[in-house]
Amino acid sequence: MTRLPFVKLHGCANDYVLVDGFGEGYGSAGLTAPGDREAFARAVCDRRTSVGADGLLLALPPSVAGAHGRMVMLNPDGSEAEMCGNGLRCLGKFLFDRRRVAREFTVETRGGLVAMSVDEVDSSGRATRLTAALGVPDFDRANVPMSGPMTGPSTPALDEPFELANRALRVSALRLGNPHCVVFVDDVERFPVHSVGPALERDPRFPQRVNVEFVQVAGPDLLLLRTWERGAGETLACGSGAAAAAIVARKVYGFPPDVRLKLRGGELAVRWAGDGWPALLSGPAVEAFAGELDRAALYSRAVYREA
User: Fold this and answer.
1) Across all residues in the chain, what is the average pLDDT?
2) 304 pLDDT higher than 60
3) Active site residue 12
């Protein structure tokens, strides 16, 4: 298959190229092997030589009972993410708008099964706002994973001192399908995200790398957020990162269960009732356009990024 159909979607300007793996011909598209997927993700996500995106979504048939679809999400560097909150809403919209799922459905991810719902639709019956239950946060340091003090691998990292290149930070780490490091700062716009973000992402204390959330308190239930995403750099929004920030705000700083988060690309809402409960992420999803990719031309002009 030389020409490959795709759909471009975004959630709060966190944008994705989605390829439909339900239809006939997907197997001949050359995206069934992990290595082929990685190369394709690097090529198609390049904003100068292709469509450009914060990630590649593959909408696939489920492989486990109880799921209505499966999401594979690859970052622009070709690495595969376990979880992606904004990507889930985009994939959910894609499935719902094409009448493959009802208003409540379940998506299989590398991070586990995610229950989803369509909260709002437009006049034509297309989904405009969705909620995803991202799962129960795991604060076990060994599961993040994050190395730490000699008090033991299961000791949680909550508001913990963290020295980084002569900069004193306080960090909180958790796993929410994927690993997160949350840093509260005084002024998120002035904070040097583009130097501290990649340093934290690749710090050896996070052996699988980590998504980094820089958070500023803006009100009793309002946070301002910038995220440095593992394998992607700074994006205009990050769904799982928003949930991680809201969870830490409640766990460490006593925030209420319902938190609003303003990101550079829009606003998201998170509800977390507390320990043992899943984090519910709500926000918009938009289909921008659809098209076809010429795979031969794509690879001939691609500038690959290193993982």
Assistant:
1) 92
2) no
3) no
